[in-house]
Amino acid sequence: MTTTEFTLTRSERPASDEVRAAVLAQPGFGKHFTDHMVSIDWTQDGGWHDARVEPYGPLQMDPASAVLHYGQEIFEGMKAYRRADGSVWTFRPDQNAKRMQRSAARLALPQIPEELFLEAIRRLVEVDEAWVPEGGEDSLYLRPFMIANEVFLGVRAAQTVRFMVIASPAGPYFAGGVEPVSIWLSREYNRAGRGGTGAAKCGGNYAASLLPTQIAVANGCAQVLFLNEAGTDLEELGGMNVVLVKADGTLVTPDSDSILDGVTRNSLLQLAEDDGHRIERRPVRLAEWRDGVADGSITEAFACGTAAVLTPIAALKTTEETIGDPEAPAGPVALALRARLTDIQYGRAEDPHGWMVRL
Ligand code: COI
């Protein structure tokens, strides 16, 4: 199908201006949704077809739909930003489209062409533009996802699939905004293993992180940190990547086949490199973090992802020890990088890499 073959059915009951204004004044994260959604169907015989923008609402699904049983599902996270001049932009959407293709390959789902993915985003933001928050650092969070909706209980790749995009006005992911968080080291649970789905953005990885995250929260932490199978090297947090900052300005981040290739992480590292920081993508030992904090050679750590943007990590807690100071303020490198990125995203600074795309 070509990208122009979208149909539009407008919601007959869009939120009133008052209701929308109240949501945009305090959006929170992931709690409110816009008036419309995009759906595109795929069948093995017919490919992608029936692309439509339609009123947001519940899906009617057969209880035997494959996704409900075997979790054949992938998703993406992106944002639309409103600039001071009112225009609406998104950030590196090609990267999300490409990652969705990689996730699809791993989950035996069909490839959605990059152009169709981008057009779906454009169409939804066009019809729901009034939902893109103004000012501050709020944005419209976009959630493209793909589900296996074939009605079949046999365990094989589904032959009917749906791609959808929904949108949700979003404030900071963490309640404290840019306030540093403490994170909890998961010793007994791993997020992903060698050859597993760790690099794919699929629901199962996030489901696997929920129990460890509950344990993290019970220990006063905002997120959980997973190690590799051997329990020696850093992987990623429950829903975002991790970066350490050394005293000499080097940024160190795990290089692993079982973590998500974060668009925000890649972009922050590029900006840091532009600013003269050395970047090391390599296996990172837990012991390096502990020893580095103790001897002063590691000065900062941060979490990063589309939802979290960049959130400083004050301390890493384990059952035996606390690495870092939970009360420590945000570090200068983290704050400067966060500002560099968000200034580009909100059009307050030049976009040297041509990352922004007007919607
Ligand atoms: C994102 O950052 O967009 C994610 O999908 C992660 C999730 C914690 C919201």
Automatic annotation (TrEMBL):
The organism encoding this protein is Agrococcus terreus
Tell me if DNA damage is a UniProt keyword of this record.
Answer: no
Q: Which reactions does this protein catalyse? A: L-leucine + 2-oxoglutarate = 4-methyl-2-oxopentanoate + L-glutamate; L-valine + 2-oxoglutarate = 3-methyl-2-oxobutanoate + L-glutamate; L-isoleucine + 2-oxoglutarate = (S)-3-methyl-2-oxopentanoate + L-glutamate
**Pfam hit, one:** Aminotran_4
Family of this protein: Belongs to the class-IV pyridoxal-phosphate-dependent aminotransferase family.
Annotated EC: 2.6.1.42
User: PANTHER family, per this entry?
Assistant: BRANCHED-CHAIN-AMINO-ACID AMINOTRANSFERASE (PTHR11825:SF44), SUBGROUP IIII AMINOTRANSFERASE (PTHR11825)
> Can you name this protein?
branched-chain-amino-acid transaminase
What pathway is it annotated to?
Answer: Amino-acid biosynthesis; L-leucine biosynthesis; L-leucine from 3-methyl-2-oxobutanoate: step 4/4; Amino-acid biosynthesis; L-valine biosynthesis; L-valine from pyruvate: step 4/4; Amino-acid biosynthesis; L-isoleucine biosynthesis; L-isoleucine from 2-oxobutanoate: step 4/4
